[in-house]
């Protein structure tokens, strides 16, 4: 755990000292872009005392002063409501940075200065940044900064994170605070009739926690304002007497007959109104007509939702086409542009990555061969290790592109509108409108879909989506499903039926699982009620898109990379070795049946009696499913290896399963387990192996149950209907 | 009257917010406090309501808006 000492006393600035500055503010004020501007995009993550999640930080040096800048998530208040607010609260209560920098939106100062005012009640050193100075200038909006600086006894610095204007001044002012040239002071807001109660609590806090690092008065106000959870946290953190605290709170409520939090927040906003009154002059406010029109469209029932889905659909069409050529290749192929479709596939990112890795493994392989390394080790390295590295790397372009689209939608303000338009539909399943994004990503690939849940505000909702998302059939599953449905029948009607029924089943399982989790486990009757800020439309900042996507892609690589690598080696060993030792590729090529001697087949035979109950007792089917655990496409390549036939449709027919068995194979394959990279992503997002294990077990059980039911019904029903099984 | 019944394009003053708990805390923190003046930017369909308050636009679900008591200005 990274912790830092208290610099506030006896500060002698000197070389080598590192000062801690925490960046905070409301959502939508441009905090991330300012953070990236100041740190140059060199971002790390670390654990901080009392805070459960990792926080981003970056380092910079200005006038010889080393500054470590910590990026706190954007939040509105300090209650338990959502993860971001909890993180900010835990940070403030357990850490003492040398300075807080609160970012505000200069064009909406009355609201966005609120967190700064609240922090100034707690902590003397709070610098206020007025971001979006460029937009304010265009709007001819003037703020009397000197007057505000006098009233609040701090600096207010105008900047534009977009153009970089004002950043030099901001750093100078930050350094003024750090070197002690500027000393702040906590502000005191008059809470009227609550003052006696604040005083009683304050005295108690001073005596129970004499070395408290925050203003005792602020803690007293938070105790009165906060909900039960916040009160509990404060009581525990500062060792307060719970009975005494609740006696004072009850006294205040009974004597005054007012809602305490309402009164306090209202007083605080009253303070802000008086503070700003006459100090903001705005001569013209223009809201372009097209913005109004677009918002009207988004808020229309049904039409708004369709419009949102269209935006997401187009976005992902572009991403997935760049990534693998799909789905544009199929469309081009169908309308006769076969060569264009082939070209799209050949030059897709995944194809280029796999070309690079096959060249690399050829090179490495022939070099190892030339220095007389045995075939087993050559293939272990080229087919096992390098293929594993390739699998990790081949996910990177997709993860990166998904985050680019994600940050594009967030930065432009479109994400909020999309979330709003779909909110009602998703609420029925205990989810918010924002959960559409990970789902849509999930249809392409579950891995970035799981990572994309980071955009969700509510922690419980996020867990529910991560848990249910693997049911969404990804593109790799679609490829397997297409092959199996073609193997089941050449009749396009039956093919379409198998495919559609599987998609419907998967989506249904997704919705039921998330409903089950939010309702039964978390006790949420309905999804969160809609309450969001509608940020103004912006043109996207390329810099922000790049930094955001780079950061999240590297984070994924670090967390998931090594696990995928290890398991892919293990999988290779299971498929290529057995009790007889190494099963060489030349043997396999001559006799595909030799695979029966591998450990993978051995495991398949052990599982055979159980899988037999759902019609999949054949060891070859089980082996294909084992390979699908690594990546769902693995089902196809395993079947190809077993039969020695490259064409997947022919190969599926050759393993000798009936139509019904093939259909059950498709059902089971769709549901049974998230693929290995998805499991790794689940682990990295939910933080624990236990959770990942729970997801896998749950899906295995569901897959088995559903396959069992379908199999048993079909076995009885189909003969009655005169259809051969 | 409740915010849900205000025709769009009208200025209002918030009188009271019913209910309790986290959601009230959050809407108060977002600036919709009793006494504040606001502008109902959109309330046309059965969907959510858009309110301009303290320089920002808030979008509020209809169920929620029914618990926000306002007067027309």
Structure explained in plain terms:
Helix content of chain A is 63%, strand content 8%. Chain A has 725 residues and is an alpha/beta fold. In chain A, helix 14 (303-324) packs across helix 19 (414-427), helix 23 (475-488) packs antiparallel against helix 31 and helix 29 (634-643) crosses helix 30 (648-654). The longest helix of chain A is centred in the middle third of the chain and has 38 residues, at 375-412. The N and C termini of chain A lie far apart (61 Å). The model of chain A is unreliable at 1-14 (pLDDT under 50). In chain B, 16% of the residues lie in helices and 38% in strands. Chain B contains two helices and five strands, in the order βαβββαβ. Chain B has helices at residues 22-29, 62-65; strands at residues 11-17, 37-42, 49-53, 56-60, 68-72. Chain B has a five-stranded antiparallel sheet. In chain B, a hairpin with a 6-residue loop joins strand 2 and strand 3 (49-53). The radius of gyration of chain B is 11 Å and the shape is globular. Classes of the chains: A alpha/beta (725), B alpha+beta (73). Chain A binds chain B through residues 76-77, 79-81, 105, 107-112, 114, 227, 259, 261-262, 265-266, 269-270, 295-296, 299-301, 304, 416, 420-421, 423-424, 529-536, and chain B through 17, 20-31, 33-36, 41-42, 44-48, 50, 53-61, 63-64. Strand 10 of chain A pairs antiparallel with strand 4 of chain B.
């Amino acid at each position: 755990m990274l912790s830092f000492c208290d610099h506030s006393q006896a500060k002698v600035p000197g070389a080598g000292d590192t000062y801690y500055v925490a960046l905070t503010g409301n959502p939508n004020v441009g905090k991330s872009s300012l953070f990236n501007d100041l740190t140059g995009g060199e971002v790390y993550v670390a654990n901080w005392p009392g805070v459960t999640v990792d926080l981003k930080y970056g380092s910079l040096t200005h006038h010889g002063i080393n500054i470590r800048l910590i990026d706190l998530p954007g939040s509105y208040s300090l209650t338990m409501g959502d993860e971001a607010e909890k993180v900010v609260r835990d940070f403030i209560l357990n850490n003492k940075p040398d300075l807080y920098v609160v970012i505000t939106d200069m064009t909406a100062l009355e609201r966005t200065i609120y967190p700064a005012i609240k922090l100034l009640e707690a902590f003397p050193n709070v610098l206020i940044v007025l971001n979006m100075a460029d937009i304010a200038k265009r709007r001819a909006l003037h703020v009397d900064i000197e007057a505000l600086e006098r009233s609040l006894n701090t600096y207010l610095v105008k900047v534009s994170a977009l153009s970089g204007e004002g950043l030099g001044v901001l750093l100078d002012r930050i350094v003024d605070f750090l070197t002690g040239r500027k000393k702040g002071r906590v502000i005191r807001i008059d809470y009227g009739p609550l003052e006696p109660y604040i005083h009683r609590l304050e005295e108690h806090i001073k005596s129970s926690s004499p070395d408290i690092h925050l203003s005792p008065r602020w803690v007293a106000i938070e105790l009165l304002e906060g909900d039960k959870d916040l009160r509990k946290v404060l009581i525990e953190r500062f060792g307060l007497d719970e009975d005494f605290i609740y006696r004072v709170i009850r006294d205040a409520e009974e004597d005054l007959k007012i809602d305490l939090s309402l009164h306090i927040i209202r007083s605080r906003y009253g303070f802000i109104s008086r503070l700003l009154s006459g100090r903001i002059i705005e001569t013209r406010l223009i809201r372009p007509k097209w913005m109004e029109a677009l918002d009207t469209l988004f808020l229309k029932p049904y039409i708004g939702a369709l419009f949102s889905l269209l935006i997401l659909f187009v976005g992902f069409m572009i991403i997935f086409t760049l990534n693998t050529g799909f789905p544009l290749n199929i469309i081009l192929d169908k309308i006769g542009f076969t060569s264009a479709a082939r070209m799209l596939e050949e030059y897709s990112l995944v194809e280029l990555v796999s070309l690079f890795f096959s060249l690399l493994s050829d090179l490495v392989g022939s070099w190892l061969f030339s220095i007389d390394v045995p075939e087993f080790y050559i293939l272990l390295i080229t087919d096992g290790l390098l293929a594993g590295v390739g699998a990790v790397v081949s996910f990177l372009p997709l993860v990166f592109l998904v985050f680019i689209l994600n940050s594009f939608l967030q930065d432009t303000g479109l994400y909020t509108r999309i979330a709003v338009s779909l909110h009602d539909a998703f609420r029925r399943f205990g989810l918010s409108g924002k959960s559409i994004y990970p789902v849509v990503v999930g249809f392409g690939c579950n891995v970035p879909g799981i990572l994309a849940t980071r955009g969700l505000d509510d922690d419980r909702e996020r867990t529910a989506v991560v848990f249910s998302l693997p049911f969404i059939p990804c593109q790799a599953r679609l490829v397997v499903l297409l092959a199996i449905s073609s193997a089941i029948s050449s009749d396009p009607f039956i093919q379409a039926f198998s495919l559609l029924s599987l998609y419907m089943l998967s989506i249904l399982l997704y919705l039921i699982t998330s409903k089950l989790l939010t309702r039964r486990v978390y006790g949420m009757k309905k999804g969160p009620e809609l309450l969001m800020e509608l940020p103004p439309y912006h043109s996207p900042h390329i810099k922000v898109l790049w930094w955001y996507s780079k950061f999240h892609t590297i984070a994924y690589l670090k967390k998931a990379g090594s696990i995928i690598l290890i398991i892919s080696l293990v999988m290779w060993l299971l498929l290529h070795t057995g009790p007889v030792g190494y099963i060489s590729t030349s043997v396999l090529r001559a006799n595909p049946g030799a695979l029966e001697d591998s450990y993978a087949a051995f495991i398949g035979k052990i599982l055979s009696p159980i899988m037999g109950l759902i019609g999949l007792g054949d060891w070859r089917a089980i082996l294909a499913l084992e390979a699908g655990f690594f990546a769902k496409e693995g089902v196809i390549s395993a079947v190809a290896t077993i039969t020695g036939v490259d064409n997947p449709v022919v190969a599926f027919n050759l393993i000798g399963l009936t139509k019904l068995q093939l259909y059950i194979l498709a059902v089971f394959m769709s549901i049974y387990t998230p693929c290995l990279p998805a499991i790794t992503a689940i682990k990295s997002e939910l933080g624990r192996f236990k959770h990942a294990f729970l997801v896998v077990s749950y899906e295995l059980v569901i897959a088995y149950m559903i396959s069992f039911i379908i199999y048993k019904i079909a076995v009885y029903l189909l003969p009655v209907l005169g259809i051969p099984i | 009257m409740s915010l849900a019944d205000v025709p769009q394009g009208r200025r209002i003053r918030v009188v009271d917010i019913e209910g309790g708990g986290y959601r009230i805390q959050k809407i108060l923190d977002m600036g919709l406090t009793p006494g504040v003046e606001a502008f109902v930017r959109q309330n046309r369909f059965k969907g959510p309501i858009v309110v301009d308050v303290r320089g920002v636009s808030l979008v509020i679900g209809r169920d929620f808006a029914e618990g926000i008591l306002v007067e027309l200005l």
